[in-house]
Amino acid sequence: MRNFKFASPTEFLFGKETERNVGAEVKKYGKKVLVHYGGGHIKKNGLYDRVMESLKEQDIEITELGGVKANPDIGLVREGIALCKEKQVEVILAVGGGSVIDSAKAIGIGVYYEGDVWDFFLKKVPVERMMPLGVVLTIPATGSEASNTTVVTNSENGHLKRALSHSLLRPAFAVMNPELTYSLPAYQTAAGGVDIMSHVLERYFTREPGCGLTDRLCEATLKTMIRQLPAALEEPENYEARAEIMWAGTIAHNGILGVGRSEDWGSHMLGHELSAFYDMTHGATLAIMIPRWMEYVYQTDVPRFVKYAADVWGVEHDVFHPEKTALEGIHRTKEFFRSLGMPVSFADAGIGAERIDEMAENCTRFGAVGGFVKLEKEDCARIYRAALE
Predict the structure, then answer these.
(1) Average pLDDT value over all residues in the chain
(2) Whole-model pTM?
């Protein structure tokens, strides 16, 4: 196990009707708030009204910016920065899922920078300050409610999708009511679940020895998702299933599962290009790329993949044919994603081969990707081609 430094300062308010306390939480950080959200869903289900009522009860001055879409774009981030400066906003409240939270994080760092906020994502300047950020989570998926990461797309500059990580990007608080997820479409629930699992897998596949505790924490989180995702899809108002999924999403990406171990993130980089070029849901891209990445790299460490197959999927370990065991674990991963209604190939998603070279180029623009196995441009292209059918 490696030396590590870990802090997770986000305060969590978890449970039924917790969104009614959001005004009091916001007031701890300021009296002028930017409420950032996506489309009309939070207005249709009444969440918008409850949040606004709670803020007004605390006499908080409200500025709004809606319109966040999946794969949040730098254009709206720039608009939010200008709005915060004009209205002298003191705290941001993101009401939504990962896209809304990521957009809010980018606004929060951009307010204190005189240049273009995209400079942070190009690693031209370091993050030094962040506006206080609160979250009302509506979609368990990205874990952005507790993570130190934001991902933003620049549609004006070659469809680039880039991630940025810094300890200051962690929200100050997160309000998490599993009931808010009851009305999610099945596809969104499934895609979010794959995203949660992907965050665990990016940490589970490590080359670092001596990480038995976090191995078992990862395995427990994955097995929870394997059990509870189908339950939530079959019975959308199953509170216990929704609650476990929501908390698993936080645990999967607040960093605790990765302490002391190297991580991979190759599948995410491959998936980001599918989102950038085809505007695909993030979880759907991962359902395609994770099994294909596994098939490409498993021979690098067959025992690790045997452990995954046996301890996560319950595959009987064939000691005379370890590769057979490893491949069965990969097969079950793919079939589980398929059973959720997720695409597991380019063909399933209606995508062809025409942009593979371009995606591979973008994926490795800043060098090889992945920690478990370093992927160069041609490696990425091979994985994309393997995913065609």
Answers:
(1) 96
(2) 0.93
